[in-house]
Amino acid sequence: xxxxxxxxxxxxxxxxxxxxxxxxxxxxxxxxxxxxxxxxxxxxxxxxxxxxxxxxxxxxxxxxxxxxxxxxxxxxxxxxxxxxxxxxxxxxxxxxxxxxxxxxxxxxxxxxxxxxxxxxxxxxxxxxxxxxxxxxxxxxxxxxxxxxxxxxxxxxxxxxxxxxxxxxxxxxxxxxxxxxxxxxxxxxxxxxxxxxxxxxxxxxxxxxxxxxxxxxxxxxxxxxxxxxxxxxxxxxxxxxxxxxxxxxxxxxxxxxxxxxxxxxxxxxxxxxxxxxxxxxxxxxxxxxxxxxxxxxxxxxxxxxxxxxxxxxxxxxxxxxxxxxxxxxxxxxxxxxxxxxxxxxx
Length: 345
Ligand code: RAM
What we know:
By secondary structure, the protein is an alpha/beta fold. It has two domains: 10-147 and 283-331, Response regulator (Rossmann fold); 149-281, Response regulator (Rossmann fold). 41% of the residues lie in helices and 19% in strands. The protein has eleven helices and 14 strands. The strands form four sheets. The chain has a six-stranded parallel β-sheet, sandwiched between helices. The chain starts with a helix and ends in a 9-residue tail after the last strand.
């Protein structure tokens, strides 16, 4: 079965390329405490808090956030833990609240563990926007979602089904065990498999914690414990890159399929050497950019996060708040050898 986005590839690629060119111009990637230009629009201070530091996916989303904050004349900062563990973000939330930052933009490692800290920050006057991986809705003002969870799940199931002839054993290599985003996608993948792929059996789900070495080791262990494995789905950019690195020099290269969610720059060599055929993602730079503009609209009181609220997000145009305080960036996009060289993130 073909994925709908593949048919959109030319248009979507052009849009992504155009937007990435803008991102590249606006970013100096130094990641520290920079001051915005303070152009009279109010010096809105925005702190990005990814799941962990050192992940190229979040480097790109933070670069997009920084570009947006500079556009509206605010002050951007990025902080975060080294490991993607459930409560590792709490100390950074507390510090940001003490500093009185206007907005925190967070990708959560756990839907519950950072809730109290976020609500204390909100009580102290900090606006909280989640992006990429949500908390429970009562702990934030808005969630900026990269694509619908159903769309992300279906894209990955369609890809693995296509790559293994719609039959055989597969396993999932996920991120942290409590990650809100991956857990939602995995649940929907299980439902999609049960409904439409009776001959595919999901035999194991393991967690690499969005750590490269852990993900690499979990890949090796999966292949050991499941000798009939036909494919691996890794819905995390860290996991799929580590699994591809393992497979590429192993006897399983080209025999065990690998797909999921990856960044083009990390996956390019594995698409070119035949380890991976196709995988999906969205533009993390646009995701960070949109989250920063959503935070600004909340801080300025232009929106309150109610369904139907609309706001402008710079080069991305106008967005509307959907049910449950969510804003949707767009559709997932499929990368393969025909288009991967069009992207640089
Ligand atoms: C990793 C993180 C992130 C997720 C992507 C796909 O970088 O787990 O939260 O959205 O993969």
